[in-house]
């Protein structure tokens, strides 16, 4: 165990493509059915966008499930983002008690870990708090996770923040990795993800692109 804390202010606290790794936990049918704090279709949209963003920026990403023969395979739109990956299937409720998952994180060499999971109060909170104790800088994505009630989700978030973890949303994850729109190669990939998953922002961006195309033609 470690009582190590990490700074919460300054540029170095923000994630970058070469400083973080992403761990996505238990986005499976059984767990999805229990999510009550967020519209399920929105949560699925967000976690797929999160995965696509990580892939676009080259962020190492782990998919893991718990007893998939009972809880179901990880959602296909999510595994389709990483077709080459065989997710780690666990029996431990706490992902950080599974040595294969811990070894994967260690082998990335990254000290900043970003988590999203179902459910917030259990399968997200447990490994977040555990990894903090092992000295990692830990972030968690609230809108790509979900709890069994609004209270459960909120209490899970409160517990993780109290332990020292940093909350973020899918758009924040994307924005911190992009950081500068002058990075045009990455900006094109970011724009594509926004168009596919950005809701109202996607509509606005599509309209802007249409206007720009019309102006260029004129």
TrEMBL record:
Q: Where is the Isochorismatase-like domain?
A: 20-170
Q: By its UniProt entry, which CDD domains does this protein fall under?
A: YcaC_related
* Any Pfam family hit: Isochorismatase
The protein in question is named Nicotinamidase-related amidase
Q: Which SUPFAM superfamilies does this UniProt record tie to the protein?
A: Isochorismatase-like hydrolases
Q: Which InterPro entries match?
A: Hydrolase_YcaC-like, Isochorismatase-like_dom, Isochorismatase-like_sf
Write out the transmembrane intervals.
Answer: none
